[in-house]
Amino acid sequence: MRNAFKYLTGAGMFIILLTLTSCENKIPPTVIAISKASDNYINWLKRADSTVQYVNLYSLPLDSALNLLADCDGLLLTGGEDVFPGIYDKEGDTARCGTIDFYRDTLEINLVLRAIDIEMPIFGICRGEQLLNVVFGGELFIDIPQDFNTTILHRCDDYLTCFHMVYVEPNTFLHALCDCDSALVTTNHHQAVRVIPPDLKANSYASDGLVEGVELANGSGQPFFLAVQWHPERMEATNPLSGPLAEAFLTQCRIYSLRW
């Protein structure tokens, strides 16, 4: 993790970590805004930091959610329903989607735009990765079985038995965080990133070439921006594509909380 921290913040990390260590008992708990919370995501965060607190923004009106976001230290976009394809000019393919939650689309798009504006750490998982790709101007495969030639099962009836390898690109933010070239992940999705917008780049792939993660092509401005297609919250903390990602995200959120 030491290398990941250097990658994240540069030479100033030593001073920041020293401050965090010496003031640990004085720092209030880190508060994570979760776009739509569930026990798996909450437990995943708490495994990395038992003191972390969270707010579930999905149950709130849009204005209230945006106001509350300003009091948080990081934004976690979670898995769930398909993103409405009309957002990326594919409305005619809506019938090939599963469940669509228009309020959630509106909520998360506005949360992302606000988080970027205030340079807040952002982590997207599964749907969260797809949503971030779309917000930045990308497109999705509407349905992998119909649109992408592969023998890999990206979605199973029982997600607990749905695994495949992910291969991490060198010289990426993700590689610095996980310090690995590949790992086994659990997955459950029928849509995926198809077109990556110019401001993002792929940081990992499945063996069939399907994009498994994206990050900023130019990391300036955002202290933490990462999106992955797999489900780290359903994996062992010792997996390099699970625990280290939560730890790095929460570390940056703690640093963000000291911005004032």
Keywords:
260 residues, alpha/beta, two-stranded antiparallel ribbon, Rossmann fold
CATH class: Alpha Beta
CATH homologous superfamily annotation: Class I glutamine amidotransferase (GATase) domain
Overall 3D shape? globular
- CATH topology label: Rossmann fold
Sheet-strand content, in percent, reads 15-25%
Helical/strand content category:
alpha/beta
End-to-end separation in angstroms reads 26 Å
Largest sheet: 9 strands, mixed
> How many distinct folded domains?
1
Order of helices and strands: HHEHEHEHEHEHEHEEEEEH
The tally of strands reads 11
Describe the structure.
By secondary structure, this protein is an alpha/beta fold. It has one domain (2-257): Class I glutamine amidotransferase (GATase) domain (Rossmann fold). The chain has nine helices and eleven strands. It has helices at residues 2-9, 13-22, 39-48, 62-69, 102-117, 127-135, 144-147, 173-178, 243-257; strands spanning 31-34, 53-56, 74-77, 122-125, 139-141, 163-168, 182-186, 192-195, 200-206, 211-216, 225-228. A nine-stranded mixed beta sheet has the order 2-1-3-4-11-10-9-6-7.
What is shown here, in short?
The protein has nine helices and eleven strands. By secondary structure, it is of the alpha/beta class.
